[in-house]
Amino acid sequence: MLSNPEFASRLFLFAGIYGILVLAPQYLAETGAGLALPEPIRNPEHFYGFVGLALVWQLVFILISRDVDRFRPLMLLAVLEKLAFGVPVLILYARDRVNTIVLAFGLVDLVLGVLFLAAFFSGREVTAEFRRSTDA
After folding, report:
1. What is the DSSP letter of 33?
2. I need a labelling partner for 42 at 20 to 30 A (CA). Which of 31, 98, 107, 124 fits?
3. Could you give the CA distance from residue 73 to residue 94 in angstroms, rounded to a whole number?
4. Alpha-carbon span 125 to 110, nearest angstrom
5. Which helix (H) or strand (E) element contains residue 13?
6. Cα–Cα distance, 65 to 14 (Å, whole number)
7. What is the pTM for the complete model shown?
8. Could you state, in order of their start, the residue ranges of all structural domains in the chain?
9. Nearest one of 23, 56, 30 to 44, comparing CA atoms
10. Alpha helical stretches, state H, 24-136
11. How far is CA 15 from CA 18, 60, 64, 73, 114, in A?
12. pLDDT, tens digit, for every residue of 56-66?
């Protein structure tokens, strides 16, 4: 069984690598060489801004994976990053504005967000317990 820090480390490393693999090809989407989009991108600055910022977050996830105790406060921001995509996708899907493929990616983000939250809270208990044992 994985220890809490090891679970968090592997989770954030997986999330970062997965995100890079999913997001990086989208840089080719505007020209049609990448994703099959239903219509042309009207505001490329928004599109590239979204993809670029999302890629930066994947690097933050990898950073967190390197030292989960030190970067624990960033885990809560990572949860918000996942909610920022997952929740709007659910709403857009309910209004028939995105397809099931987009819904699937939104659901993956929501699952990762829940796991990030679990990693944050499980690690706090371990850290607090460790501090109490060293104070005695």
Report:
1. S
2. 107
3. 33
4. 23
5. helix 4-23
6. 9
7. 0.84
8. 4-135
9. 30
10. 44-66, 72-94, 100-135
11. 5, 10, 11, 17, 12
12. 999 999 999 99
